[in-house]
């Protein structure tokens, strides 16, 4: 099968998200200039550079009370900071609770009963029990083709790792089983790993 996205795929559901899988989930916490706080998951998320460490996430829809975007991007525009909280399998339900199209006045930490902590290097909340948190300073927001598509890039200025996730001096993903996003309504979790050496190593 071949199709051009501009012509449509002819299938019951869009296969694009099912092809580009698995995707890590960036659970983005922000604080607005008015002090309100927000927490929302984004599956268009990844690390993009080592030195300095940098990450990105993309927001692809808008809310009527936020104009051309959603709460996360709107808050980051105001404050220039955000935190990426890593999602473990055990937090799948509370993460999903924060994905709703809630009004900007709604605090998803409170809504889902999630304990928060203050970041160390930026004025922003973080998910206290997450396996890891990446405190980020905004570097740029890029408007992508299409309505309400924004890619947000940030430099990581502080990293929290939960002590029980560090095994033999390494961050052990099997200790918390990262939640990953697939297509449609599907998710998966990392339950096994294997290693490969690059040619010449």
From TrEMBL:
UniProt GO molecular function: FMN binding; oxidoreductase activity, acting on the CH-NH group of donors, NAD or NADP as acceptor
Domain of life: Bacteria
InterPro entries on file: Flavin_Rdtase-like_dom (IPR002563), Split_barrel_FMN-bd (IPR012349)
Residue intervals of the Flavin reductase like domain: 18-173
Protein name (database record): Flavin reductase like domain protein
Gene3D superfamilies: Electron Transport, Fmn-binding Protein, Chain A
A Pfam entry, by short name: Flavin_Reduct
